[in-house]
Design a protein that fits this description.
InterPro entries: Kinesin_motor_dom_sf, Myosin_head_motor_dom-like, P-loop_NTPase. One of its GO terms (biological process) is actin filament-based movement. Keywords: Actin-binding, ATP-binding, Motor protein, Myosin, Nucleotide-binding. Residues 1-307 form the Myosin motor domain. This protein is mainly alpha-helical. Among the domains are: 5-138 and 174-193, Methane Monooxygenase Hydroxylase, Chain G, domain 1, CATH 1.20.58; 240-299, Alpha-Beta Plaits, CATH 3.30.70. It has helices spanning 5-36, 49-56, 62-71, 78-88, 132-136, 142-149, 154-159, 176-192, 215-224, 227-236, 244-251, 266-276, 296-347, and strands spanning 95-97, 115-120, 123-128, 240-243, 284-286, 290-293. The strands form 2 sheets. The protein has a 3-stranded antiparallel beta sheet with strand order 1-2-3, with helices on one face. α1 crosses α2 (49-56), α1 (5-36) runs parallel beside α10 and α3 packs across α4 (78-88). It is elongated, with a radius of gyration of 34 Å.
Length: 348
């Protein structure tokens, strides 16, 4: 219920993770249809970049205002920090306080004067401004760093590299918010170079007990995790997509014209395959480099047909092998019978 600086930066990290989730799933999903030339109806979804900008903007962001308060001369308190937020963020649609211009639209009159509220992606969160300045000004004094660097223990010395006299920097150490912001930026840069997969965990109840399903709690988590938008985009689009070459290689056994070898472009082979299987045209679409299948049951049908075909091919291979084995044994017995008969006639 009481949220301070720690929860603020945690929620900031959650917003950044949600942003990259949107970019790598919803946005990329729709951009792929455009790249592949697939007819597509654009689905609107909420992009939380505006919330991230409210927090991390270098000029007007909350973290920038907090750092400015920590570094400026004169009397600095949490109240002066809140006053600055009320001036800079007053018109922002996701920022609320008792003194901001958005306050007149608030239905909740219980918002204290020493608090501000941010409308995050998952909902509104109120933060107690008390302690923001002190916690952000979490500085490690140089003399302490130098003393720890002089320790004989190698681990302690490695933990305080800034204490090395050869690397003395007279600049003010970065604030806690700046360090966290830089760490989040590094994390985002690292994730964008990868192809991450997401596992969304839903907590069914707060009691950690079995067989209890709290509908309200689950619905809140579904909205918070952005699953509704993801499902909307997936249902409006195509559930499965694959390049033509691997698709033809996997299912070519289902068509006599493509089995065992197809001589020609992979896309043409896939077209022949789908026409042979009489799959409805509304269930698939041909992109520039991929085949798009709309409904999962079409894919399940292909897999079932492939499984049955593999069983038939296995039976065929087994039949041919058994026939070859029996014929080889028969020819050997026939040859042996001739040798035995010839020797018997010679003896008789």
């Amino acid at each position: 219920q009481d949220n301070s600086f720690e929860q603020f930066i945690i929620n900031y990290c959650n917003e950044k993770l949600q942003q990259i989730f949107i970019e790598l799933t919803l946005k990329e999903e729709q951009e792929e249809y455009i790249r592949e030339g697939i007819e597509w109806t654009h689905i609107e979804y909420f992009n939380n970049a505006i919330i991230c900008d409210l927090i991390e903007n270098n000029q007007t962001g909350i973290l920038a205002m907090l750092d400015e308060e920590c570094l400026r001369p004169g009397t600095v308190t949490d109240d002066t920090f809140l006053e600055k937020l009320n001036q800079v963020c007053a018109t922002h649609q996701h920022f609320e306080s008792r003194m901001s211009k958005c306050s007149r639209f608030l239905n909740d009159t219980s918002l204290p004067h020493s608090c501000f509220r941010i409308q995050h992606y998952a909902g509104k969160v109120m933060y107690q401004v008390e302690g923001f300045v002190d916690k952000n000004n979490d500085l490690l004094y140089r003399d302490l760093s130098q003393a720890m660097w002089k320790a004989n223990h190698s681990l302690i010395k490695a933990l305080f590299p800034e204490g090395n006299p050869a690397k003395i920097n007279l600049k003010r150490p970065p604030t806690a918010g700046s360090q966290f912001k830089a760490s989040v930026a590094t994390l985002m840069k690292n994730l964008q170079t990868k192809n991450p997969n997401y596992i969304r965990c839903i907590k069914p109840n707060d009691k950690k007990a079995a067989h209890i399903f709290n509908d309200a709690l689950v619905c809140h988590q579904i909205r918070y995790l952005g699953l509704l938008e993801n499902v909307r985009v997936r249902r409006a689009g195509y559930a499965f997509r694959q390049a033509y070459e691997p698709c033809l290689e996997r299912y070519k056994m289902l068509c006599k014209q493509t089995w065992p070898h197809w001589r020609g472009p992979a896309r043409a082979g896939v077209e022949v395959l789908f026409n042979e299987l009489e799959i409805p045209e509304e269930e698939f679409s041909f992109g520039r480099s991929k085949i798009f299948i709309r409904n999962p049951r079409t894919l399940f049908k292909l897999e079932d047909l492939r499984k049955q075909r593999l069983e038939d091919l296995a039976t065929l291979i087994e039949k041919i092998y058994r026939g070859w084995k029996c014929r080889t044994r028969f020819l050997l017995m026939k040859k042996s019978q001739i040798v035995i008969a010839s020797w018997y006639r010679r003896y008789a």
